[in-house]
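*** C-alpha cells ***
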Amino acid sequence: MAALGLMEVVEKLVADHTVLSVVVGSRAYGLETADSDTDRRGVFVTPTPLFWRLDKPPTHLDGPLPEQFSWEVERFCVLALQANPTVLECLWSPIVEHLTPEGEELLALRRCFLSRRAQQTFLEYAGALFRRLDPDRPKWKQAMHMLRLLLSGRHLLRYGEPLVQVGEHRDRLLAVRRGEIPWPEVDRWRAELTADLDQSTGVLPEAPDRARAQDFLVTVRRANL
C-alpha cells in the first residue's frame, strides 16, 4: 500500500475495510433543511501487517465522498475513551449506512467508553463555539449547534446516552438557526443548559471501561492479520 497514492489509499481503506459508517450532522439530528449536506463518519480497520512497516498507516482519512471522514479503529477508540463528543455521537447515530460484524461489536460495547469526563468535554466544545460567536452579528447556525451540543451533553449525563435526534427541541433550534429568536433569549438558554450540565451529578461512571475497549481492539487486530 506504500506505493499507492494518497487518494488510492483512502479509497482502498474506506471501501474495503470500513466496519461502521453513519450519517451525522443535521440529517442525524433531525435539523436538516433543503440545503443540508450529508455528513458521513466511519471507522475502518487497517490490516494488521501494515503496522509492521516503518511508514505507519493513517489514523484518519478524508473522503472519498464529499463530507466524509473516517477514523482508524484504534484512533476512534482512543477518542471515545476521552469522551470526544463527535465520536460518542457517532456511536448513537440513528442513521447507520454500513455495518460489519466488527462494527456490530463496536456498537455493542459503546457504553464502555462512557465516563463523567463527558461533562467536561461537552462543556468545552460548546464553550469553544460560544466564544467564536459575535453577539452583535451571531452566526445563527453555529449558535444552534452550540445549543444542540449542550442538550446532547445534558441528556448523556442524565440518561447515559447522548441526544442525537433532537426530538421536542427541533422547532426551537430551527428557529434559532433562522435568527427568529433574539440573541439575549438564545444566550439565556445557553446559560441554563450550561448550568444544568455543569451541576449535573449524572449517571455515568467515573472512568470508562478501558479494559473492554482494549480487548476489542486486540481481537480486531488478530482477526485482521
Q: What stands out?
A: The chain has two domains: 6-114+208-223, 117-199. Residues 176 and 185 are 10 Å apart (CA to CA). Residues 117-199 form one domain.
